[in-house]
Amino acid sequence: MAIAVFDDFNRPDNPTSLGTATTGQVWVPYDENWNPGDTRWGIHSNQGAREAGGNPSVGGGGFALVETELVNCIVKVTIGNAAFGGDLNNNNFGIIFRWQSALNYEMATWSRAGKFLRICQVVNGNFLCTNEGFPGTTQIQDGDVIEIHCCDTVITGYLNGELRVTGSTLIGSPGGTMCGLQCGNGVISDTAFALFDDFTVETNATCPGVVTYNCVGGACIDPGDGSGTYATLAACLAGCGVDESYNCVDGVCVDPGDGSGAFPTLLECELSGCTPRVAETQKFDAGNGSEYYLVAQIDDDGSELRSKTYKSIRATGIRTNASAMMYGYDVQQEINVDDLELGTRSNTRMTTRPQDFTDSTGVTQSERKPINVANAVLGTVRYEGNDTGNEQRDRIDEIVIERAIQGVRR
Amino acid sequence: MGRQIEPRRITAGEYIPTVAQTGSEGDNSAFRISNLLLRGPEEGRRYWEAFSGLGNLGQNIPMSVMTGTLALTANSNEVAGTGTLFLTECPYIGMRISCIPADGSANYFIVVKRVIDNTHMIVWTPPYGNPPWPTVSELIGWRMPRGYAVNDQLGVSTWGNVIKLDKGSFLGAGLGTFFLSGAELGGTSLELSREPAIALYDPLTSTYTVFPLGLQQATPPTLAAVGGGSKMQGGNYSFVVTEARKETGGYGNPSDRADVTIATNDLIACTFAPLVTPGANARILWVTTFTDTLGADLNYLNGPWHRLRLIDDTEVPAGGGTINIEYYDAEVESNILVSFNNDPPTDAMGVESMNTNIIWTSVQGQGFATNPEATSPGPFLSPAKPNNIEAAPLELAISSSPPETIIGTIPGAQGRVYVETVNHLQIAQSTPSDLIPFIIRPLWHSGFATWEQVVFVDGVLYGYPVSGPVRSAGEGDESYIQHDWGAKVYAITKNWNPGQVLAGYDPRNDAVILFHIADSLNAAGFWTTKWLAYGIALQKWLGGGVFTSDIKDMIVTGVATVNDDLLLLTSGRA
Fold this sequence. Notes:
The complex is a heterodimer. Chain A is mainly beta. Helix content of chain A is about 5%, strand content about 40%. Chain A is built from three helices and 28 strands. Chain A is elongated, with a radius of gyration of 34 Å. Chain A starts with a strand and ends with a strand. Chain B is mostly beta strands. Chain B has three helices and 48 strands. The relative contact order of chain B is 0.12. Classes of the chains: A mainly beta, B mainly beta. At the A-B interface, helix 2, strand 20, strand 21, strand 22 and helix 3 of A face strand 1, strand 3, strand 4, strand 5 and strand 6 of B. Strand 20 of chain A pairs antiparallel with strand 7 of chain B, so a sheet runs across the interface.
């Protein structure tokens, strides 16, 4: 899908104007009487906002629209104040699409009263909500996403990706190409805002005949399958003729976007030595400590089958964040050096968790595991610690593992 | 139920990763270690101590970017270049290069094994398995610097090395900008190249001026007899002059002769032409004696010429001038005679000092089409003349034996320099002869992949040739070569790429450290370096560890012992 319009509303608060979308289109606000220039649309906490209030007899409330140049499209928006309008309102907030004029447009709104998504249209000034959607048991929440797919006369609506309404409309194509936001009059209080975020309009690639564009060799080409990068020819032409170029800015190669860079390619910019790469001088064994570990072999069966149990692990020395784990391996299986070093592929983990050390750590009864494997078993202990930040280095003087034998099985 | 059995007691001992996996090993040894070192005076009193890690000295040395782009092929040790200049920019075996795409998303680390031409080279690969890169192109090559001790400081350059002279000047050859303790020289920066250079120190300003080493043949003076002297007897005399540099006392080849006839007690007015050698600031005058004039056939005018004295630019400016000369025969008769083989040193990779004599290394190799005179790397060592460090005539150069490209040199003791070649470790030993200042013979019959693979400690050589860890007595007696020195750590080193192994000596731990650089990629996608430590006093493998970072490569590209520290250079992608 190619994006035609996107707005994350991330700009300073403004009580009277939505300003310009992230992709550059100018918002045109309308009041509840379809008069342009409504000053109750604005920016509030990085969201599109509309004050409560308006003509309660008109279900649509206020609108804010942008030009998309698309008829068959996908429109979606995140709802920021799901409680706006209260539960008695059937057109709390939603999406306007295919706006031709105040007399002909379509919209999809959420009904808090019915907990459903509904599709409505105005045809020659006549308002009709033709599709009530699928009633749900859960109310819309802050952060939920309303999404509408348009393909000629077929409209489908989703809430958080779940299909909530399908139907057909009379307007279809050709319809208008403006899309936007809708909110009701709001009845909770005059201080509440309808809030919207991440408004997106993109081509509907699944709709047959959708036209998109790629910039190929300086020309705008429709791939024919809706997969183009650009949603409109105008957008493609704006970006297609500009060659990539780069400037070295503070050791980073940056494309100025207008073809004015000093280097024609990223590679040439890097080859100029723009990115400073350095070698650092280090002194060996003169740092602030390190993570360390030691692995020692601790047991085997020899040629007999034995059942040994490990009762405790004791380590003396200076330790910081130290722990130990014991592992068992069937040496007739395919184990490698890394397995022995890291404790992976152990077929008998003799402790279920690393044993953090105090002066003497007992292996709990549930963790005392017998070695009772048909083939020779190699046992290892892995002791690790981290003395980073200490003035004194950790040390290991001795590791002692208490063992018991449970019997001989032949 | 069950009965108590002997506890398993693991006490500190040697790091022995190469053992049978029987479980009965390890009462006093470690099977695997990371960042721990064995301490303690004797058995029964030992412990393992955590490694402190690396201490950053805050000296950042810029890496130099190569011309053109490089391409690698999966499962191949061949590197192809587009627009590259391998013969000029990475001609030496063992040079280390980070190949990074423009988006900085990876680092394909390579070590030069053989340069075929400007756009093709072979690199070192692991002894088993395939090299760790896919087929990838348009890579940017970053040459990674090496480090070396320069008296009591760390010297760094892209390749080659530098030594410090007694009055503070530096001599060097190689590649790249020379950094001393992380900074370029004040005044004029020393840019190393195949052409040996000198950075002359001015104690008044604490700055340096840099010139190619060696002086050109002088222009003959003009002589005239003038009155006012008191020493000289009437007769015919002949002078030659050599251009000189007063800071080094070095001089070039003599001019054609100039003759003069004087009367008794005349002075000889000697007019010098301008000096032609950049940085030359003196002349040495060489003269014949009255005694020579007693021959009737004037043969004496063809020499020999005795050294009279050095005349610097405070007496006669570099641009030329006249000075009146007179002398007694006795003043010059016992002085040295001028020689005609004061040629500047030829192309070289580096420089060493043997019994205070300067030796240029890896010279007299084959040139190439675009620079047939570029004769380094090569199989020869070329000594400077003992009394003229700016002259290194090729007639004194001695080939490695057998003649093999010299990869690196390591200074030893007692007038020795160890020479790493592609197939041997050779030993160069000084002689008392001026005509044959040293001899070279093979010691180890295993070659090397890069420069920093041998250390000489307390009379013993420790090294990592392509066959693996080896050590021997440094006197050169082949009967003391120990090929099983690394047997206990074979499990760690068996898959090491010989081109990626460096050796260093750490005085603090009194240990030889082997580094396998660019050992593996960590979870964050950056290169690590694995290291092993062998204790000289304990004669045991002490332990090992890994240098790793989540934000940058930790490829060790330089090792140097400076004073009581082992200093490293780490670099790559950040």
